[in-house]
Amino acid sequence: MQRQSSNIQYRQQDASYFEQRGLSRYAGPWSLWALGVGAVISGHYSGWNLGLSLGGWGGMAIATVLIAIMYLGLTFCIAEMSPALPHTGAAYSFARSSMGPWGGFITGLCENVEYILTPAVIVFFIGSYLGSIFETPAAIQPLWWGIGYILFVGLNIVGVELSFKVTLTVTLLALAVLVVFWISAIPNIDFSVWALNIGSDGELLEGGGGPFLPMGIGGALAAMPFAVWLFLAIEQLPLAAEEAVDPKRDMPKGIILGMITLIVSASMVLFLNPSLVGVGAYALGQSGEPLLDGFTAIYGSGLAKVLALVAIIGLISSFHTIIFAQGRQIYSLSRAGYFPTWLSVTHGTRKTPHVAMIAGACLGLVIMLVLFVGLGIDQGSAVIGGTLLNMAVFGAMCSYIAQAASFILLRRNRADIARPYRSPFGEPGAWVTIVIALVTLFFQLSDPTYRVGILGVIVWFAVAIAYFAIVGRHRLILSPEEEFAMERGEKIGEKSGGTVPATPKR
């Protein structure tokens, strides 16, 4: 049976279609907190530091404040929208209800780029750490990447209960490692000499005492894409909506507590790591293992390998957690027909979207190998890792703009939807998110080092949009997100206290 809306065609599936795509509920507020913090925490271990080479310490500090403001605006928008529209679709679901099928697809596509590439960035840094530990040549880095994907995709397939337990455990361990680092670093810092050791020409300034903004305000703005790495993926929490026990109560609590945790951690890392005696902002701006550099400066090179194994916990935490999000994001778009529907089939007994996770991992690995070969195996972490990072951030910024716009449109056009939680920042918070995200995009495109990767993402967008225009829009399915949007979803929400059935009404 088909239903048509404008130039969009829907196919109505029977109950067996959704039985093959079932999920199970497990997550409470602390599981959701761990999912959000765990997804981001690797950015406090590696990646953020590359912005020091563009803006110096002061520029990176300003960039971090601006990006933190953007994420506060975004997360409070999501905290309102996710319990009002508690579907696995998250960003796609918000945009589908506010901007129609095309808006939903394009928003979901932007988020898809983020969740395909973010695990790739993290496993790249995992490989960098493991290469240092076992002294393996750069040519076999893809072996570490493959092992990482196989192990953690496998853990996520085993079951949602195990996945959340592993997430909580590794997130707590990752935070514990950071706390140990902070306590160890405090007696060993000299901010003026080491954090301010970049000159106005971008070169090393022996003895420190350099300017707060060595590259001016332009350098601070150019560092914004790397500051994003301190918070990127906190917005993935709504992807667990259909696996949360009580999404309308727990989702806002989990995402707000997660954001507070990340702001505290980001502040400590940003101040202490570059200030360490023997490290400094200049060296960190070129490093693939900044936390390991800090531990080595404190405890000496003799413990370097042990410390590297400790430091890798944070990377594992985020990698495992974002594999979870990647699977749910692909699953939701596939279940609704935007992506091929075979991608959303879940495991018969474990009820996990195993096909989506495997497909996303394979695509991420292919992109890494293309960059690895195209840029050359001799390229440093700052180039290959930075290219992947900027590609992921580009997709994220586009997604954030669309989600903030969805919040504004839902406030204006769907005022009657039941909202268990309301953002205290309202529409102004959403507008601030949009403006800062647009500035970040501008400076990404202004950086010639990473522009090729971003152009590759734009080509990805073009191919996917062409697919949807020619094929996908004629094959949509009446999934929960689609029925909510089409059949006055606010009434459904009111009748069920802000939740919707796991399968559409027949």
TrEMBL record:
<feature type="transmembrane region" description="Helical">
    <location>
        <begin position="140"/>
        <end position="159"/>
    </location>
</feature>
<feature type="transmembrane region" description="Helical">
    <location>
        <begin position="30"/>
        <end position="48"/>
    </location>
</feature>
<dbReference type="Pfam" id="PF13520">
    <property type="entry name" value="AA_permease_2"/>
</dbReference>
<protein>
    <submittedName>
        <fullName>Amino acid ABC transporter permease</fullName>
    </submittedName>
</protein>
<feature type="transmembrane region" description="Helical">
    <location>
        <begin position="355"/>
        <end position="377"/>
    </location>
</feature>
<keyword id="KW-1133">Transmembrane helix</keyword>
<dbReference type="InterPro" id="IPR002293">
    <property type="entry name" value="AA/rel_permease1"/>
</dbReference>
<feature type="transmembrane region" description="Helical">
    <location>
        <begin position="430"/>
        <end position="446"/>
    </location>
</feature>
<keyword id="KW-1003">Cell membrane</keyword>
<feature type="transmembrane region" description="Helical">
    <location>
        <begin position="212"/>
        <end position="234"/>
    </location>
</feature>
<feature type="transmembrane region" description="Helical">
    <location>
        <begin position="255"/>
        <end position="283"/>
    </location>
</feature>
<dbReference type="GO" id="GO:0005886">
    <property type="term" value="C:plasma membrane"/>
</dbReference>
<feature type="transmembrane region" description="Helical">
    <location>
        <begin position="115"/>
        <end position="134"/>
    </location>
</feature>
<dbReference type="GO" id="GO:0022857">
    <property type="term" value="F:transmembrane transporter activity"/>
</dbReference>
<feature type="transmembrane region" description="Helical">
    <location>
        <begin position="166"/>
        <end position="186"/>
    </location>
</feature>
<feature type="transmembrane region" description="Helical">
    <location>
        <begin position="389"/>
        <end position="410"/>
    </location>
</feature>
<feature type="transmembrane region" description="Helical">
    <location>
        <begin position="303"/>
        <end position="325"/>
    </location>
</feature>
<keyword id="KW-0472">Membrane</keyword>
<feature type="transmembrane region" description="Helical">
    <location>
        <begin position="54"/>
        <end position="79"/>
    </location>
</feature>
<keyword id="KW-0812">Transmembrane</keyword>
<feature type="transmembrane region" description="Helical">
    <location>
        <begin position="452"/>
        <end position="470"/>
    </location>
</feature>
<dbReference type="InterPro" id="IPR050367">
    <property type="entry name" value="APC_superfamily"/>
</dbReference>
